């Protein structure tokens, strides 16, 4: 038999190795290297805080699982049967009965077939030495709704609800979960882990912590539902591994006057009575225990060590999210309406080698954003290898994080007028903090990354080693209700921008490649154009500070011929405000196909690169270059030719290994050794 979590130890060792190497590199980060007027210091101030710091505890999975102790066989009837004892010769005839009777040390082997069952609630915990495993063996297993129990069909399929008692050390492996039957789509997330009231500020000696903990869910396909998410983690949930999960075709349209009335699609003939509502691939939601809230927007916790994050140590890897009606993954803070940064905000969320992609027919990857990170802390969105062309042989790039196909939502379709998206692969806002975005491939999206969208500041952001290619410009999802044509203002929501860094403190942006950027590579602060008033209420307070930009290839696409819905500005760096502080940029490579250089902006002036370097007030990019990056043709893509100006002209302030001239780092997302 196969183990419940294959390669867990190697994954854990890899995470620890990366953390160790990262720590060695970060320990040698130098201070600013030049004066304050020339903004070229790139002091890498965010490195000490960004990214997940702790992995889930998975040692309990290392020994695999015991031989089958309970057996389940399908009956083909709705709800199964209460008959059977679980023996090989007399198997249970109900998956629900088998799972809910499982005890520590049990391995429930589910025989091939379809099980029409609802709302399975694990009752007892396993232990580190005797976990409980439910696995499809032998053969494929599908779990489908039991329509004779519509109430249960609209609930979760696997519901790890702690009911004020701990539940942990469970593995769920190798199932297909259908949330529709006979063209009827049901509510409820396929997998739910939640512990609403189990946040304990001080755990009593000798008392177990109330939580959902030490859970692995892997090799699961879930599809065709109208629940809030494929997988929901809420409250005190920790040490969870989600691996090789597929969530596809989850949608819901809510009545504008009552969001609890939902349909899978907007009903024909109802016009705009319904609005498109969130259905995420994975939803992570923090919860504070009653009495724990902090009304102060800058809370001072007198005992932070005794206040655990509500959701923490979560690893999500090698999963795919396709054609869902919300975000690929959304992470919400613990405070009500995210009013402040809470110590209970979800923490140490590691999102690795996942794919949120549009399919061959052009269906959107999701109807909102790829990753929407609100007031969560210590979050990594990363690939374990460089984001090479996904079509090259698997042995060259077997693991990568890919995001493609995010386009602006059609405003009239969005529920309540505010449940909308501008089409970003990654959105960071509210009090998101300590975020690492590394080794991702982002394409065909209106925005690569949008950070700091509100007056609440995002803190501690590192964006490195990413490839942004062929972003979208002036595109929008179709009107799914009345087939209307978007207006010019609606199309203009899709800005074709690599990074929009607004209300962010301490960001390091380095060794990324932006190819064929259709409009703007990096925009700093709110507003878009030179004539935007930085003092209007919508823009007040939305300025970044302490942002370092170095070793990036910024190659624009020539879109000067586009005039509708508006002309395309064509900016490498667009600073729409003059009141931001410590914006440092250097050792970048800039290119426009017509060899022009007037693509820099510091409000209200547009500069050539030469003038930008020598500006008497604020000079930047004194060591940066302008020239064609000379990308290699064929695979692997976006490597540079040996005579490229990107070769060996980067700034190696972090001491990374190089393969060209000794100690000389390449500019761009990859150190080209070919």
Tell me what you see in this structure.
The structure is a single chain. The protein is mainly beta and 674 residues long. Helix content is 6%, strand content 32%. It contains five helices and 43 strands. It has a 25-stranded parallel β-sheet that branches. A 13-stranded mixed β-sheet has the order 6-10-12-17-20-23-26-29-32-35-38-41-42. The protein has a three-stranded antiparallel β-sheet with strand order 15-14-16, with no helix packed on it. The longest helix has 19 residues, at 8-26. The relative contact order is 0.09.
Write the layout of secondary structure elements.
Elements: H1 8-26, E1 70-72, H2 95-100, E2 107-110, E3 113-116, E4 132-136, E5 141-144, H3 150-153, E6 158-161, E7 167-178, E8 180-181, E9 184-185, E10 191-195, E11 212-223, E12 229-235, E13 237-248, E14 253-255, E15 258-263, E16 274-276, E17 280-285, E18 311-317, E19 320-322, E20 329-332, E21 347-352, E22 355-356, E23 371-373, E24 377-382, E25 401-406, E26 424-428, E27 433-438, E28 440-445, E29 447-451, E30 458-464, E31 467-469, H4 488-491, E32 497-501, E33 504-510, E34 513-517, E35 520-524, E36 545-550, E37 553-556, E38 571-575, E39 581-586, E40 589-591, E41 600-602, E42 605-607, H5 609-614, E43 625-626
List keywords for this structure.
5 helices, mainly beta, 6% helix, 43 strands, 674 residues
Task: Describe what is shown at a glance.
Helices cover 6% and strands 32% of the residues. The strands form four sheets. The protein has a 25-stranded parallel β-sheet that branches. The chain has a 13-stranded mixed β-sheet with strand order 6-10-12-17-20-23-26-29-32-35-38-41-42. A three-stranded antiparallel β-sheet has the order 15-14-16, with no helix packed on it. The radius of gyration is 26 Å and the shape is globular.
């Amino acid at each position: 038999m196969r183990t419940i979590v294959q390669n867990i130890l190697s994954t854990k060792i890899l995470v620890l190795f990366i953390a160790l190497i990262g720590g060695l590199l970060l320990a040698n980060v130098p201070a600013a290297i030049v004066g304050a007027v020339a903004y070229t210091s790139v002091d890498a101030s965010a490195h000490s805080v960004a990214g997940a710091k702790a992995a889930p505890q998975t040692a309990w999975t290392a020994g695999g699982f015991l031989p089958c102790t309970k057996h389940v066989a399908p009956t083909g009837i709705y709800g199964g049967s209460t008959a059977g004892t679980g023996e090989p010769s007399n198997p249970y005839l109900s998956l629900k009965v088998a799972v809910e009777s499982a005890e520590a040390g049990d391995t429930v082997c589910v025989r091939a077939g379809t099980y029409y069952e609802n709302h399975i609630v694990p009752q007892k915990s396993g232990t580190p030495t005797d976990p409980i495993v439910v696995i499809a063996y032998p053969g494929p297993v599908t779990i489908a709704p039991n329509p004779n129990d519509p109430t249960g069909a609209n609930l979760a399929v696997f519901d790890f609800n702690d009911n004020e008692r701990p539940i942990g050390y469970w593995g769920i492996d190798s199932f297909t979960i259908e949330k529709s039957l006979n063209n009827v789509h049901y509510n409820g997330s396929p997998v739910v882990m939640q512990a609403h009231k189990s946040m304990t500020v001080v755990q009593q000696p000798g008392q177990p912590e109330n939580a959902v903990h030490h859970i692995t869910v892997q090799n699961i396909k879930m599809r065709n539902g109208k629940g809030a998410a494929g997988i929901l983690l809420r409250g005190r949930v920790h040490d969870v591994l989600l691996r090789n999960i597929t969530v596809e075709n989850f949608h819901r349209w809510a009545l504008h006057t009552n969001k609890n009335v939902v349909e899978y699609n907007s009903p024909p003939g109802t016009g705009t009575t319904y609005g498109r509502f969130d259905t995420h691939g994975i939803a992570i939601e923090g919860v504070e225990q009653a009495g724990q809230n902090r009304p102060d927007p800058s809370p001072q916790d007198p005992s932070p060590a005794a206040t655990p994050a509500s959701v923490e140590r979560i690893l999500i890897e090698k999963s795919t999210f396709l054609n869902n009606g919300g975000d690929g993954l959304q992470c919400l803070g613990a405070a009500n309406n995210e009013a402040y940064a809470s110590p209970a905000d979800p923490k140490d969320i590691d999102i690795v080698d996942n794919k949120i992609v549009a399919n061959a027919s052009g269906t959107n990857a999701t109807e909102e954003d790829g990753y929407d990170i609100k007031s969560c802390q210590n979050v990594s969105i990363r690939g374990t290898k460089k984001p090479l062309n996904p079509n090259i042989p698997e042995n060259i790039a077997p693991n990568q994080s890919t995001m493609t196909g995010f386009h602006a939502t059609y405003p009239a379709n969005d529920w309540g007028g505010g449940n909308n998206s501008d089409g970003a692969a990654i959105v960071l806002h509210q009090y998101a903090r300590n975020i690492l975005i590394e080794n991702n491939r982002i394409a065909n999206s209106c925005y690569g990354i949008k950070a700091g969208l509100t007056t609440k500041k995002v803190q501690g952001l590192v964006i490195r080693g990413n490839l942004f290619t062929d972003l979208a410009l002036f595109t929008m999802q179709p009107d799914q209700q009345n087939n209307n044509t978007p207006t010019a203002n609606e199309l203009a929501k899709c800005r074709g921008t690599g990074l929009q860094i607004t209300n962010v403190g301490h960001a390091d942006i380095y060794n990324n490649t932006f190819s064929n950027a259709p409009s703007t590579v990096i925009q700093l602060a709110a507003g878009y154009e030179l004539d935007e008033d930085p003092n209007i209420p919508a823009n007040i307070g939305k300025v970044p500070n302490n942002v370092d930009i170095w070793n990036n290839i910024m190659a624009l696409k020539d879109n000067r011929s586009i005039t509708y819905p508006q002309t395309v500005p064509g900016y490498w760096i667009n600073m729409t405000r003059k009141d931001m502080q410590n914006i440092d940029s250097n050792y970048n490579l800039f290119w426009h196909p017509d060899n022009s250089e007037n693509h820099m902006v510091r409000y209200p002036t547009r500069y050539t690169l030469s003038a930008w370097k020598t500006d008497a007030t604020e000079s930047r990019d004194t060591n940066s270059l302008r020239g064609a990056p000379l990308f290699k043709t064929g695979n692997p893509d976006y490597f540079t030719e040996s005579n490229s100006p990107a070769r060996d002209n980067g700034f190696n302030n972090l001491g990374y290994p190089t393969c060209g001239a000794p100690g000389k780092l390449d500019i761009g997302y990859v150190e080209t050794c070919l």
